[in-house]
Hints:
The structure holds 2 protein chains of 2 kinds.
Chain A: H1 2-15, H2 21-27, H3 29-59, H4 75-81, H5 84-115, H6 122-129, H7 131-134, H8 137-147, H9 154-162, H10 176-204, H11 208-216, H12 221-249, H13 253-258, H14 270-278, H15 284-309, H16 312-315
Chain B: H1 5-18, E1 49-55, H2 60-77, E2 80-86, H3 88-101, E3 107-111, H4 114-117, H5 126-135, H6 141-147, E4 158-164, E5 167-170, H7 171-176, H8 186-198, H9 211-224, H10 241-254, H11 268-274, E6 280-282, H12 286-292, H13 297-305, E7 306-309, E8 323-330, H14 337-348, H15 350-359, E9 365-366, H16 376-379, H17 384-387, H18 404-411, H19 414-423, H20 429-446
Parallel strand pairs in B: 1-2, 1-3
Antiparallel strand pairs in B: 3-8, 4-8, 4-9, 5-6, 5-7
Helix pairs in contact in B: 1-2, 2-15, 10-19, 12-13, 18-20, 19-20
Amino acid sequence: MDATVDVGLQRLNFVRAPDTWVTKLFDYKPFLVFLCLLPSMGLLVVFLTYPLGLGLWLSMTDTTIGQPGHFVGLENFQELMDDPVFWMSVTNTIFYTVVATAGKFTLGLWLALLLNHHIPFKAFIRAIVLLPWIVPTVLSAIAWWWIYSPQFSIVSYVFVDLLHWSDTYFNFLGSPWPARWSLIVANIWRGIPFVAITLLAGLQTISPSLYEAALLDGASGWQKFYRITVPLLMPILAVALTLSVLFTFSDFQLVYAITRGGPFNTTHLMATLAFQRAIPGAQLGEGAAIAVSMIPFLIAATLLCFFGVGRRKWQQGEAND
Amino acid sequence: MTVTRRESLALGAAALGASAIPIIGARAADEIPTANVKSPDYKIEKGATLHVLRPAKFIDPDEVFWKANTKKFIEQTGIDVKVDFVSWEDLRPQLAVVANTGAGADIVISFSTDPHIYSAKVLELTDLAEYLGAKYGGWYSLAERYGQKWGTKTWIGIPIGGGTGPCVYRKSWVNEAGYTEIPNDLEKFLDLCQKLQKNGHPCGMSLGHALGDANGYSEWLMWTHGAFLVDEKGKVALDSKEVLAAMKYATELQKTMIPGTLTWNDVGNNQAFAAGKIGFTFNGVSLYYSMLKSPDAAQNAIAADTYHQDAPFGHSKVKPESAQPMNAMIFKHSKYPNAAKAYLQFMMEAEQYGPWLSNCLGYWSQSLKAYRSMKFWESDPKLIPYATAMDSPFYDGYKGPISAASAAVIANYTVVDMFASVVTGNATPEAAAKQAAKQAERYYRNA
């Protein structure tokens, strides 16, 4: 290192090229930092900032597909305030996110704990568990659509034609509440692998010596889970929870493929309603306004996950103030 | 479309293979009465090339014969034509890009109202439309409605053909219920459906989010009761006793249906009918053909028992059905407008249109009256309800001006959801009509 510096100094002495503004500029550290960041900033601007900005702008215009819009201020939002379908989509989305996330985490954690034991064919079973997550959502949505079909449901077939427990086929999607619960079940099914595998990774970072120590102290199974597993799992749980909430909140494919928001708009999520109004309905401004309305909810959910679950002190096992 | 020799061989083979049915209408031009009208004779620009977008096929012959005709055009004129077959969902977004950027396709063949949405950006086609109308016995009223600018005789679109959704029913089951055909009287029709249900072969019409089927069924409910979405001036007219009567009737009819129709998408009724679970529905001809051409003998048997008839008239004087036509437009940004017009003319002339239409076997129905006399329409009497799909005063957004608003009402299932919430008892007819009117007004106000 010293040698090169020496060589450099000597060269400087000899040549003493005049410091042009270019060399000065490149020696200026903040500029160099800026220059190195430029490619990634470019990507962010083009693929994130611009679409987001365009969405915000569209939400304040009356643009339709085919006609350039005019600035209308907050008119789209005012009309949404007065739109029962929009409010139903908001409550549906919140309900869907809360219930499905709770389900995914309960079942996912349980599955992760099971998989963390030494069982035969461990690697094989773990791979199978990932399947619902790997299969493209549209395909699994179509499978669920068949399962919920009023005429061709395998579930109905088993209960009616094989077991004779019931006379009529189930109408899973025909009325609002059964339809909502059916969609939630499908969403939980798809989300479990993500939670299970992420938490399994977290479980494997917990040192077995902690459990051995607990065993020597005479801790019960529940105490080991509550005092060791849960606190040490918190950091990864916070990340998984945040991602899962975001995925669920902005879910589109399952609902669009299974119900398209029907019957009579009672299963619309904000994402599906925004799409229906904006693209097939051609009201780009209105659709953008619905999409923009999701942003505050998403930010709130992210903050809640990070600050609610991911508090550092709790993670490190210290008492809360 | 640049067709190499190898491709043209494949194309010919496909044309033969696609029709397990013999190629009918090969001498189609002979069957079509034409008037002696002077062709507009477009001066084709030097070095002209054309890019065409059109909807993807649902049945093979549609694409095979369209391509074969295009190839013929290329050979006769030397104009290079590229045709893209675009899936139905993607077509409208692509059309919007073409219109907004003023670049890309010269000709876009889209659906019903689209030329009206882009009327400022498309060429006037009055000369071509008047020539075709004069030569081929005139345009059907639905073709005029979608081809001409509202309230004028100016043509901005060339409607190519449309499909409709009349009654599709199992004859033996309707006979068993004590009827020889589908009654036009609404009380009797309800009685038929009640009896079908009692015999275990209920009817089934979707009121779910099924874009084609559910909108078609709710439009029938409206028109058969003399109700309409908007008046001639575009004022929303859902607050009427006819609409209330339609909702009351729909509620009674719903009780006779197979459970689960509110969850059906556009294939729901097809699946249930083909499985023998329903005895009556409204649908396009594709259902009948898929069963007729099926390798499964059980399906062929159902097809043999399947009959078609115009939708029950009820209080309407003409059949309360509409159709969704393919509608061609030429963009002003095209550098070769004359070549584009010549292409559309060529495709609509008997030598090309005849074989294409007859091989689509009722999937598309002609927009020019002369083609009604083609023999294939008589080859199977079951096709007849589809033969005059375009002969209808009804259209999406009837009776109002054609605009983007009527398309938005359809896409948002505004009227469908009005019926759906009432027939399930989730809303009173008055409340449902009020909410639907509010939503529709928003689109019509902005249109």
